[in-house]
Amino acid sequence: MELERFVEAQDAGGTYAAALAELRRGRKTSHWMWFVFPQLAGLGRSDLAVRYAASGLAEARSYLADPVLGQRLRECCSVLLELPGSDPVAVFGGIDAVKLRSSMTLFVRAAEAAPDRGLFASVLDKYFDGAEDPATIELLG
After folding, report:
1. What value does the mean pLDDT of the chain take?
2. Which of 13, 39, 98, 109 is the 20 to 30 Å CA partner of 123?
3. Into how many domains does the chain fold?
4. Are 73 and 64 in contact, with CB atoms under 8 Å apart?
5. Where are the alpha helices (DSSP H) in the chain?
6. Dist. CA 31–CA 122, nearest whole Å
């Protein structure tokens, strides 16, 4: 599994540091959603959405197990949980709020460790009233 594509994208030009700073400010303003909060393949149609889509639960589990990517995803989720308010559109805008829900649905189902499942479920609880993304669930079968 080619996880290096995610690390390279996050590291390019300090993108991950910028993404984390934007999350801490409570407003995403640049373009990094695809490779910080990946979705399941089959949801996005753009070149970037296709390139950075997780092929399935196995790749999502590898992403979580990766010492860089897994830690960064957990860090971003923790920052989201610390923000005031619970409107994902206020933080991400409408399109990326949908991507966040898809990503958290994928990772809550991929997580094998209870603390990870709880973290991703907490993001779904806070921003989406606990509702998982039906399109992701359907693609997972």
Report:
1. 97
2. 13
3. 1
4. yes
5. 4-11, 15-25, 33-36, 47-51, 57-65, 69-82, 88-92, 94-110, 114-128, 134-140
6. 24
Helix axes 114-128, 94-110, angle to 10 degrees: 150
pTM for the structure as a whole: 0.96
Structure tokens at 73: 């995803």
CATH of the domain at 79: 1.25.40.380
State how far the Cα of 35 lies from the Cα of 45, in Å rounded to an integer. 15
pLDDT in tens, 42-53: 999 999 999 999
- Of 28, 34, 70, the closest CA to residue 54 belongs to 34
Rounded distance between C-alpha atoms, residue 131 and residue 119, angstroms: 14
Coil, helix or strand for 54? strand
Q: Which of 113, 118, 11, 2 minimizes the C-alpha distance to 62?
A: 2
Parent domain of 108:
4-140
Using 50, 70 and 90 to split pLDDT, how confident is the model at 114? confident
In the chain, the largest separation of any two C-alpha atoms, in whole Å, equals: 37
Q: Which residue is associated with the tokens 């934007």?
A: 22
